[in-house]
Amino acid sequence: MTVQPRRRTQQERREHTETALVAAAAEIVVEAGVRALTLARVGERAGYSRGIVTHHFGSKQGLVDALARSIQVGFVPGLEDRPPGLGRLLALVDGYLHAVSALGTANRAFLLLWAEAATTPELAETFRDRDRGFRADLRVDIDAGVAAGEIRADADPEAVAVALVGQLRGIGMQRLVDPEGVDTERLRGDVTEQWRRALRSG
């Protein structure tokens, strides 16, 4: 008796298509640069038509938004299982630096797009929103750490969040530009300890 493979649901087919399109967009950014990213090229790379890309994302802006979201979700695994506070904040720093030690195509694309956002208005909104979300998540940990007495009471959550995002993104960019000269695995312990000392109470 032959067992017929289960047919994918419409939602599963949609998710598969979107994943393939986002992956194709990341490959194009890494291989040819941000300006080479067009809906037509993404569709062709993924084996679909431009119309399919437009159907799923609406525009290049929508595609970039989806790419940025897909990369940030789960970038440092396991954080959702930790309670907010200094421990989770330090785990994020350590995990982030570990993740950029082996930058895959998607993460390389994110950093390239993030850098380009400084001079490209259509990218600026997406990455401004992503960074604001990143800082908001960090502030939750800082506020929780202060409330628990783990983080010094005079720590400014916004200032700490801006400094952290700047440092982590900056190290990621250095790793992207000079992978042989920037050993993020070696940096992990030092950077995490620097933040522990800077923030801890007492």
From TrEMBL:
What InterPro entries would the database entry show? BetI_C, Homeodomain-like_sf, HTH-type_TetR-like_transc_reg, HTH_TetR, Tet_transcr_reg_TetR-rel_C_sf
Return any one Pfam family short name.
TetR_N
Query: Do you know which Gene3D superfamilies this protein is assigned to?
Result: Tetracycline Repressor, domain 2
DNA-binding positions are: 38-57
Please provide the record's keywords in A-Z order: DNA-binding, Repressor, Transcription, Transcription regulation
| Residues in HTH tetR-type domain copies | 15-75
The keyword Transcription regulation appears for this protein:
yes
Q: Which PANTHER family match?
A: HTH-TYPE TRANSCRIPTIONAL REGULATOR BETI, HTH-TYPE TRANSCRIPTIONAL REGULATOR RUTR
This chain belongs to the protein called TetR/AcrR family transcriptional regulator
According to its UniProt entry, this protein's organism is Actinomycetospora rhizophila
